[in-house]
Specification:
3 domains, alpha/beta, D-Maltodextrin-Binding Protein, domain 2, 8-stranded mixed sheet, Arc Repressor Mutant, subunit A
Length: 336
C-alpha cells in the first residue's frame, strides 16, 4: 500500500540507495557503495517504487536515469539523509560532552611538539576535562573531523578543506636538514638552489602530511617549467595538472610516516629532509644536524585549528583553542 503519512516513509537505506543510484546513473555502482549485491539493490529499488506508488527510475542497458518524479524524490531523500547525518553527529557530540571528554585530532608535529604544553595549560584552566588525542597526518585529521570522531583538530600545511572552518594558531617554518658529513653541510654558508633540492633524493613524509604538502607547493612554484620564451608559466601550483596527478616535484629516497623517523634517517646518513624547525631545534643546537638554506624558496606554513562547520569550539575545546593561540606569537617570533 502506498505511503499516506510521514510515519510510513521508507527506511534510510532505501533512500540512500535511490540517491546513490541516480547520482551514479548505475544501480550496480550504488550496490557496491552500500555493500549489497546488484540483484538485491534492484529489488530494493522496485520495492521503494511500490511503497511510494511512484515510478522513480528508467532502467536501460546504459544504466539508470530518473523520471521527473524521481528527480524530485531524490532531492527530498537527500534532505532526509542529510538531516539523519546531522542527528547522528549531534548525538555523538552530546555524548562526548556529557562524558566530559574533549576529542582532539592533531598532526604529528603539533602532537609531538605543541600539544603537550597546551594540554598542561588546559588542565590548569579546566581540571575536569578529559582529553583524548588522535594523532594523524593533516589529511587524516580533516577526515576524522568530517566523520565526527573529534571536536577540534590541528593541522599544518596548505589551506584547510572547504568543508571545515579554521583559525590560524601560529606560523611554523620548515628547514632542510642534513647530517654533518653531507656535502651540503660543508658549503659556506650551507645553501642549495631549488633545482638542487628537487633533483636530490630526499627523505620525506607520507602523502597527506602537512610538511610534504608545503614542500610540494614550494617546489612547484620554483621549478615549474618555463614557457617557450623562457618565462615561468605562472600556473597556480594547486591547479597544476602534474601536481593533481600525484607527480611530486622532488625525488624520494625514503618515505616515512613520522617526523621522528625522518630525522633518524637523516642522522643515519640516508639523505636530506625537509622538517619543521620545531622538530629539530635541539639537534641543530647540538650540531647533530645542519640546516641548509634554499635560495628564494618559501617554506613558511600556518598551523591551523579546524572544526566542522556549524560546530564551533565550545567549553573545553574553546579553552584549548585560546591556549593554542596565546602560544603562537612566542613561537612565531622565535629566532630562525
Amino acid at each position: 500500500m502506498p505511503v499516506t503519512s510521514p510515519w510510513e516513509l521508507p527506511d534510510l537505506v532505501s533512500l540512500r540507495l535511490l540517491v546513490e543510484a541516480l547520482d551514479r546513473s548505475s544501480i550496480g555502482a550504488a550496490a557496491r557503495e552500500l555493500g549489497v549485491s546488484q540483484p538485491a539493490a534492484s529489488e530494493r529499488l522496485r520495492a521503494l517504487e511500490q511503497r511510494l506508488g511512484v515510478q522513480l527510475c528508467i532502467r536501460s542497458p546504459r544504466g539508470v536515469r530518473p523520471t521527473p518524479a524521481g528527480t524530485v524524490v531524490r532531492d527530498w531523500a537527500a534532505d532526509i539523509l542529510a538531516g539523519a547525518e546531522r542527528l547522528a553527529t549531534g548525538v555523538a557530540t552530546l555524548r562526548a560532552e556529557q562524558a566530559g571528554q574533549l576529542r582532539v585530532a592533531a598532526s604529528l608535529t603539533v602532537a609531538e611538539h605543541l600539544f603537550p604544553g597546551w594540554v598542561h595549560a588546559l588542565r590548569r584552566a579546566a581540571p575536569d576535562a578529559a582529553v583524548r588525542l588522535e594523532v594523524a597526518n593533516s589529511a587524516e585529521v580533516a577526515a576524522a573531523l568530517g566523520a565526527g570522531r573529534c571536536d577540534l583538530g590541528f593541522i599544518e600545511g596548505g589551506g584547510a578543506p572547504r568543508t571545515l572552518q579554521s583559525r590560524t594558531v601560529m606560523h611554523d617554518r620548515l628547514t632542510v636538514v642534513v647530517a654533518p658529513g653531507h656535502q651540503w653541510a660543508r658549503r659556506r654558508p650551507p645553501r642549495v638552489t631549488p633545482a638542487e633540492l628537487a633533483s636530490t633524493p630526499l627523505v620525506v613524509r607520507e602523502e597527506g602530511s602537512g610538511t610534504r604538502d608545503v614542500l610540494e607547493r614550494a617546489l612547484h612554484l620554483r621549478t615549474r617549467r618555463p614557457s617557450a620564451h623562457g618565462i615561468p608559466t605562472g600556473r597556480d601550483p594547486e591547479r597544476d595538472t602534474s601536481r593533481q596527478a600525484g607527480a611530486p616535484p622532488f625525488r624520494t629516497a625514503l618515505e616515512l610516516g613520522s617526523t621522528r623517523a625522518v630525522t633518524a634517517a637523516v642522522l643515519a646518513g640516508e639523505g636530506p629532509a625537509v622538517v619543521s624547525v620545531l622538530a629539530v631545534t635541539d639537534l641543530l643546537g647540538r650540531g647533530e644536524l645542519v640546516a641548509v638554506d634554499v635560495e628564494g624558496i618559501d617554506l613558511a606554513r600556518r598551523v591551523r585549528a579546524v572544526w566542522r562547520e556549524g560546530h564551533p569550539p565550545a567549553g573545553a575545546a574553546a579553552t584549548l583553542l585560546a591556549i593554542a593561540c596565546r602560544t603562537g606569537p612566542a613561537l612565531r617570533d622565535a629566532p630562525a
